[in-house]
Amino acid sequence: MKKIFSILAIAALMAGCSKEDSTTDVAPATFTLTGYTSNDTRTAFDTPDNVNNKIPFVWSEGDKIWSGSEKSTEAVINNDGSASFTFASEPESTIYYNMTGTSATQANVPASQSIANNLGQNGDFGYATVEDGEFTLSHATAYLWFNTTTSIANATLETVSVNADGVNIAGKATWNVSEFGVVSEGSSEVTLTIGQPLSATNENVWAMVVLPANLSDKSVKVVYKLNVGGNTKYYTQTLSGKELPAGRTQKISANISEAQLTDYRELRVLTFEDEDTKFETHDIVISYYDWDIYDNVSYPKTIAKWSDYIPTDGQYGNMHNLYSWHDAGNTELACTNIISDYGMGAGHAGISNFVGTNYQEQGNHMYDLQAYNVDGGANGSDNFCTQFGYVDPPQYEFENSPQGLPNLYFHDGIARVIDHMYVTNTTYAYNILVSGEQGFGGSYEFTDDSQFWVVAYGYETDEDEDPTVVKFCLLDKGKQIVTDWTKWDLTGLGKVVKVEFNLEAGDNGYGEYGLVIPGYFAYDDIAVQF
Question: Residue 434 pLDDT more than 70?
Fold first, then answer.
């Protein structure tokens, strides 16, 4: 990138002044540098050449350059496209273009940018060395050019946000001759406010300034926020293999269709995988019945990742402990286990990686943490959650019926839409559904009329007494029992602060003392709209 400067005027020198003349007003010396635009000059974008994917660049009103600690006057745009800058003292050999930093060499690329500003006010940074009165300006920042179109009527592009997957592309950094130093006050996301109508042949230029970065091994998300007929909608692109070298402009094109729009900005997913752990390290008390010594055992345990919740072989009852978890900074979902007055427990969520097809083969009483599967969690993962808890219908309730439904809630109290989760049967429930069970004052036998389902109750507020209900059949009449991780759409619950889960069965699934079928199901990969 080049800006060619020439010294046009040097201060006039006063010669032969007498002592009597020493009080005469003399115009201060001024030094003017003129910069000429070229195809590489970046202070503002002109009309783009979409055929060749190039953009001409022009000087902007208000541009200034630095010499040492001194800023020039604002640019005077000349008829030939050049711009003149004036200094009060002779410029140093190195010149900097930096409109946002507090010093010549400290660049400041803001995380919030606007097309109302020129690129300099969005953090554009350049430097130049004087050679024989000429300057070639090199740019140390990088640039994204958005070419966005749509055939949707009455659509306005409000903002475009770029998330660089944990890599700082905005913030403050000092230029050290050939590269930027450590970034402070960094941000991996930059949002450009646009507020302009979209069309199918849009030719506007919307440019974002970013710090140079190598994102070739990152997943870069570009989120477009639109206003369509007064309604806020979103479109998300996921890009990979992007490099943002200094001085280069990357073109990002998007032709947005109505079918691609969503009501949410992004989906955040709770996976229960160790690499996705968000909570802080904490201690819990593990309590379980040791079948080797026929007694209860308790000891403290440090939890630093999801799999730390999973009991080792023989620690029966770990899922029934009163531990809590919170997916902080991600979905904000949380769960707190509860115990009923009966003591058998109600509302237990056990993190697990136990899978199999026959619960009796698991041994050591770990069947209540086992999902009916041989490959692990949903979508090829390792960990998942196994849930126990139900409330019997009134006609089957008895004195010691379990009380309290298992639930998920948003720890920060903000109501959100849970988009979906993946569910499947536990091995324990599957085997009983197939082979039958006697107990609880009744006898269950598998027939074409057998049913077993999980019910979700969504609460808009903590005081809500009329929850919205959706259900998922783990076994429906005359159909095959669910044995694979299956996506359960929960958007029908709307925005909720809490979701309770209940397990119900068909008429032949109850005995005199309630549910005969084991009250378990497994879930994984819970997606929340943000």
Answer: yes
Q: In 319-445, where does DSSP find H-type helix?
A: 427-435
Tell me the per-residue pLDDT of 494-529, one tens digit each, with 9 for 90 and over. 999 999 999 999 988 998 888 899 999 999 999 999
Instruction: Give me the residue spans of the domains in the chain.
Output: 4-13+28-265, 274-529
Q: What is the mean pLDDT of residues 287-305?
A: 81
Amino acid identity of residue 233, one-letter, is K
Write out pLDDT tens, residues 187-197.
Answer: 999 999 999 99
Query: Quick check: 388 pLDDT over 60?
Result: yes
Per-residue pLDDT, 59: 74
Please count the other Cβ atoms lying within 10 Å of the Cβ belonging to residue 312: 10
Q: Write phi, then psi, for 186 (nearest 5 degrees).
A: -75, 160
Nearest by Cα to 419 from 285, 529, 311, 323:
529
Q: Look at residue 27 and tell me whether its pLDDT is greater than 60.
A: no
Euclidean distance between CA atoms 116 and 193, whole angstroms: 9
3-state helix, strand, coil in the chain (%, to 5): 10, 45, 45
Question: Can you give the pLDDT at residue 25?
Answer: 36
Instruction: Give 329's contacts (C-beta < 8 A, 6+ positions apart).
Output: 278
Give CATH for domain 274-529.
Answer: 2.60.120.1350
CA atoms within a 13 Å half-sphere pointing along the CA-CB vector of 328:
8
Closest CA to 169 of 149, 143, 197: 143
Extended strands (E) in 91-230: 94-98, 106-109, 112-114, 125-131, 134-135, 138-139, 142-150, 155-163, 170-174, 184-187, 189-197, 206-210, 213-228
Query: What is the pTM for the complete model shown?
Result: 0.75
Residue 333 DSSP SS3: strand
Distance linking the first and last C-alpha atoms of the chain:
40
Q: How many angstroms separate the CA atoms of 207 and 124, rounded?
A: 11
Selected from 3.20.20.220, 3.10.180.10, 2.60.40.2630, 3.10.450.50, the CATH number assigned to the domain covering 4-13+28-265 reads 2.60.40.2630
